[in-house]
């Protein structure tokens, strides 16, 4: 009964989504207030219906209702409760449900909090959201219905893919999807603005919080995914430049560009048409990411078996959304009035450079990811493009970007003095020299030259961002109390920027450290054997059998010592899940924050007395994720800026000044 | 600066960005593209010392651990031809006889020395290149036919 209710709610949601999109569009065109106002209750009703459907599916998973095919295929009665709940979105149908849940929550948030939005803009934004909803609801109902029953119901289910039964991956999809779907808000606002034929600073101020929220959650989602790959796949790698990873990275790059160009629209009323284009591109890349993952057309280490029909459906959806919005853009963009002028060396100029480099980076990732597909379609052979390609194309763009990122905030709007800005950065310059010199001395030629560049870059980004903050609060130039006061009253968006920029430096540090100086040992070890890696001695003590709720595991015990001192006991596992007949590697990691000691237990050797053991020493690797979490926090701090309080900005006020007393404060 | 001039600058910059991206990509492609071959294609293809991907099925009964414990030798087949493969390291969790596999490496003395064996997240997943290669050899069975019972996994 409950699954049928869920299915029914989903069908109703489709019709409500139609009501949310068509009448308001007509109403906005004919200035019919009643028709426009339909969008608000419709958006909320659609959210409630989708939530009911989602709750029904969750219920079926939690009580292990094996008369529902989706539960049979992805659950097992012995599965821990956490994975019963996360298993709802750990499969194709459920993940699409999660997608639509996020979409309608965002839509309802605009309906509920967007009281100050001009009525036509609000109606159109909600209508576009409604249309996206129609597309995805159709997709679910036609190709991926999660409520299909099986008769007779089996006694137990097939269990969830064991690789997904992991806390890191349990929460990876919600964050990732919140990011993808969050960019749909920027998209809806962009399309609505094109229909309106009007973009102004107030528009940018409505769009920015949504973009910030989406960007922050996407950052977190990517960081979690990379962390999961690091410890769960047992290879100790954190990024493979794999198509599925790139699929989430491209919207992130484009979204980062959007985040920055929206600042220019808000502050200077310039780059409007470019920002609209970016909003369209960012969401299109999110859709394309979904398509690449869900269609399985690219070989990927993260690929799952899929149904080609679904891929075609998403491709059509992508074509309609992207093609339609780009067509609208080409018709309407020329009518957008260009705004403020600026010299090449200025804050605007720096942000243009940022956008240029980020778009170039996105383009290189895009080319590398889709080129194999292109060759395949043209029957020119099967190829794959791996890490060497991306290192050769992405890094030359990323390095100048980080260098410029530190300088940009020192430049003033309209016209700036580059020499003066650089001279204020002398502390960061000194930090770079020290960091590079120390690294070169300590490592004495070990590792590639690029590692020194990486370390220098990390120091530049981290110290440079802090110097900018210190400069802004006049640290050491006025009494400390005074600086403290300034810091407290600085806009939250300034805090957010400093945190995010500095944390990018930390991530670069981690990436450089582990790429350049990781050491590994792969050997067959018997209990009692010792291995020595990076000055640590690993003693393989024993292997025991452990019973989990839905798996059996061999658990190895390793004692790690350094110079005779005990450092840690590591207990990696090799789990066999009986229902799926799959084995997973649960690596054991000891982290000192400055490095990770990583042990993974592999297959037993032929006679069964020894095991293949992978031992890694990953210097600095935790900083990749510390930096990632920090970037997300930066985004969230920025989001609490009072100017972005949802519904706060009004067009009237924005037309004059940027708002009350914030005028004398240093620009963000 | 006039509006027109600024627009011209912006256009120039954008073209510069796009151009450099393309140039970077093209030069990188020359060295870094990895081709995919099936065992049958290898019979006619000159691969020399280049890195490439080999795909097919792991032949039943061919997987042997070497005495050092960490090296595995096996044969990859598309049923028409086979290739001997040697891999040092830990095989992915879903590596199994009779299943599809994609390995990256190069030919050394008639043996394909794999640098990497690609992992899969899902036992029903067949890399598209492998299913294509098997289709060409005429032995492809749609995994969906055999997998309807075992149910597809996310």
Question: Could you describe the 3D structure shown?
Answer:
The complex is a heterodimer of chains A (668) and B (154). By secondary structure, chain A is an alpha+beta fold. Chain A has helices at residues 2-30, 33-37, 39-62, 69-74, 81-86, 92-113, 119-143, 167-170, 172-196, 201-232, 243-268, 272-295, 308-332, 347-377, 387-407, 418-423, 426-443, 449-472, 480-489, 492-517, 622-639, 651-656, and strands spanning 383-385, 519-525, 530-533, 536-547, 551-562, 565-570, 573-577, 582-586, 588-591, 595-604, 611-619. In chain A, strand 3 and strand 4 (536-547) form a beta hairpin. The radius of gyration of chain A is 26 Å and the shape is globular. The longest helix of chain B has 30 residues, at 3-32. Chain B has 154 residues and is α+β, with helices and mostly antiparallel strands. Chain B has two domains: 1-33; 34-140, OB fold (Dihydrolipoamide Acetyltransferase, E2P), CATH 2.40.50. A five-stranded mixed barrel of chain B has the order 2-4-5-7-6. At the A-B interface, helix 4, helix 6, helix 14, strand 1 and helix 15 of A face helix 1, strand 1, strand 3, helix 3 and helix 4 of B. Strand 1 (383-385) of chain A pairs antiparallel with strand 1 (33-37) of chain B, so a sheet runs across the interface. Chain A: Required for the biogenesis of c-type cytochromes. Possible subunit of a heme lyase. Chain A: It is found in: Cell inner membrane. Chain A: It is a multi-pass membrane protein. Chain A: Keywords: Cell inner membrane, Cell membrane, Cytochrome c-type biogenesis, Lyase, Membrane, Transmembrane, Transmembrane helix.
Strand content of chain A: 5-15%
CATH class (first level) name of the largest domain in chain B: Mainly Beta
Shape of chain B: elongated
The SSE string of chain B, one letter per element, is HEHEEEEEEHH
Helix content of chain A: 55-70%
Q: Count the strands of chain A? A: 11
